[in-house]
Amino acid sequence: MAIHIAVKVTVPPGRTECMGETVEADHFTIPGGPRIDGRVLVSGNSQYYVPFVTIRVLSPTGDQLWQQQHVYSETHFNVGARGPGSYKVCFYNPWESRTDAVVDLVYFTLAHLRRGTGAITIPKGTQDTRNKEVASQDHMDDVRRTILGMSEFMQVIQGSQKYLQRKLERHQQTMESNKRRTLFYTGLEVGALLVVGLVQVLAVMGFFKPGRSFKISV
């Protein structure tokens, strides 16, 4: 299972979108137990409604491993894997959301975050005996499992970095949007004040036009 699962999808109200990734049997030979790990960001394009989604993680047999409802902003899941096969993460946008939900699956991967006793042991003896023992199948299997576990852990680190970068980009977009909205309403307010002030000045000047006379009757 690789970290190349990193996509952004738009889910309309009442629809469900799923993504899947296959976990090979080799991953279950690493001590510690494999876990499905992922991070999700949720946003929308509507100015009037805030979308929310229900997120589910499914096992290769279709069993639900994890669920969270009413995800408005972000979430993180980390659940134990149940054997090799295709794992899915599904996003459901209910009708109550009333608007499209933009779901950013920052990463969806597998990693042994809780390692067991899988350290590489350096054999003792002379150079020849060490070379023979290192070349043995058992020792090569230990090396392969350790390298695979380290690769998975690096995938999670890279995914976390992408997640922080996406959050920073989203905060910047929110700040820029708020700035534009604030400038627009401030300009509109200043324009309205100028118009009201000009109308008041013209009204006052109209009372003092030259040639206007007032008659007083007795």
UniProtKB/TrEMBL annotation:
Its main location: membrane. Residues 6-209 form the GOLD domain. Keywords: Membrane, Signal, Transmembrane, Transmembrane helix. The chain crosses the membrane at residues 183-208. InterPro entries: Emp24-like, GOLD_dom. It comes from the Eukaryota. GO terms for cellular component: membrane. It is a single-pass type I membrane protein. It is found in: Membrane. Pfam families: EMP24_GP25L. Belongs to the EMP24/GP25L family. This is GOLD domain-containing protein. It comes from Gonium pectorale.
